[in-house]
């Protein structure tokens, strides 16, 4: 199957490379030339516009940063919706209402939208072991079941209504942000008490305080490796969307609000382009108090 991938960032590049490994023809587009060159070296074909990618494929995957970029990909000059109809799979983490709007636009063109946010990071994208949350029409799911199986280690069918998978993803990311801030605070506190933070992380990883995101981020952060596998500003965006979603539903999350405040502080102190695990540095410098402190 010929598949398009628009947005060749940390996740999109891994998706494209995985699909190539699985024998699919892959056509790509990104605003940046370096990711396009990397994708081309992996065997992808670079095309000049989203519309050109759409014309070349049976399924178009969108893996850009936010809803504004999705809108540009679909509706902008040379956008996907100016091409013949093609099913669109949105892997970006965006607001449910935006997913619902894009689904209406795609359906109006005679195609289906797959609401398919993913979780797990670049390595899992590359290895085809991501968690994938899916909300779409049954016909679209069945039509693209082989591609979904190639990309994800586990696929969770949320509903047949695009927007519901986005809701699940935002709740997941809200919890991930809380875990990450709490883990960073715990390690910084232990370090100030004279404990070896690397040993402390190992103990937590093997004990009841374990969480996937702290296992993934904290060993790198403790080594001072803040190269962005997951950008601080992106998780800040996700937590903002999650809390807006809760507010619209008449709910709130005090722990999520505290985590968002921590990430906003990190972004305002020069860490926006760093890995989100670099939030550890704020607790080490006492620029943030531990939650509740």
* Counted beta strands: 9
Listing every helix as H and every strand as E from the N terminus to the C terminus, the arrangement reads: EHEHEHEHEHEEHEHHEHHHHHH
Helix content: 40-55%
Number of folding domains? 2
* Overall pLDDT: 96
What overall geometry do the principal axes of the alpha carbons give? globular
Number of helices: 14
- For the largest beta sheet, what order do the strands appear in spatially? 3-2-1-4-5-6
- Fraction in beta strands: 5-15%
Gap between N and C termini: 54 Å
Give start-end ranges of low-pLDDT stretches. none
Describe the 3D structure.
Residues 2-156 form the 6-phosphogluconate dehydrogenase NADP-binding domain. This protein has helices at residues 10-21, 33-41, 50-55, 67-75, 96-108, 122-127, 138-143, 145-151, 164-192, 197-205, 212-222, 232-248, 254-271, 279-284, and strands at 2-6, 25-29, 45-46, 59-62, 87-90, 113-115, 118-119, 130-135, 152-159. By secondary structure, it is an alpha/beta fold. The chain folds into 2 domains: 2-162, 3-Layer(aba) Sandwich (Rossmann fold), CATH 3.40.50; 167-284, N-(1-d-carboxylethyl)-l-norvaline Dehydrogenase, domain 2 (Orthogonal Bundle), CATH 1.10.1040. A 6-stranded parallel beta sheet has the order 3-2-1-4-5-6, with helices on both faces. Helix 9 packs across helix 11 (212-222). The longest helix has 29 residues, at 164-192. 46% of the residues are buried.
């Amino acid at each position: 199957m010929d598949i398009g991938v628009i947005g060749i960032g940390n996740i999109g590049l891994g998706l494209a490379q995985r699909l190539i490994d699985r024998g699919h023809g892959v056509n790509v587009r990104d605003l940046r030339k370096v990711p396009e060159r990397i994708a081309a070296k992996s065997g992808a074909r670079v095309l000049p516009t989203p519309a050109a990618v759409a014309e070349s494929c049976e399924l178009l995957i969108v893996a850009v940063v936010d809803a504004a970029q999705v809108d540009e990909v679909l509706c902008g000059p040379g956008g996907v919706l100016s091409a013949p109809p093609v099913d669109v799979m949105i892997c970006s983490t965006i607001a449910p209402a935006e997913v619902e709007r894009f689904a209406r636009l795609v359906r109006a063109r005679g195609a289906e939208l797959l609401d398919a946010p993913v979780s797990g990071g670049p390595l899992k994208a590359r290895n085809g072991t991501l968690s994938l949350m899916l909300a779409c029409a049954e016909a679209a799911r069945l039509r693209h079941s082989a591609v979904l199986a190639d990309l994800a280690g586990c696929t969770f069918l949320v509903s047949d209504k695009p927007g519901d998978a986005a809701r699940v993803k935002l709740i997941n990311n809200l919890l991930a942000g809380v875990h990450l801030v709490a883990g960073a605070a715990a390690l910084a506190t232990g370090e100030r008490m004279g404990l070896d933070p690397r040993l402390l992380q190992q103990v937590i990883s093997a004990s009841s305080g374990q969480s996937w995101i702290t296992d993934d981020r904290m060993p790198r952060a403790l080594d001072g490796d803040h190269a962005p596998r997951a950008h601080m500003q992106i998780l800040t965006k996700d937590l903002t969307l999650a809390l807006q979603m809760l507010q619209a539903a008449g709910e709130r999350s005090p722990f999520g609000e505290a985590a968002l405040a921590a990430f906003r502080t990190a972004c305002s102190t020069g860490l926006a382009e760093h890995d989100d695990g670099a939030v550890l540095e704020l607790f080490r410098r006492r620029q943030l108090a531990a939650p509740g402190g």
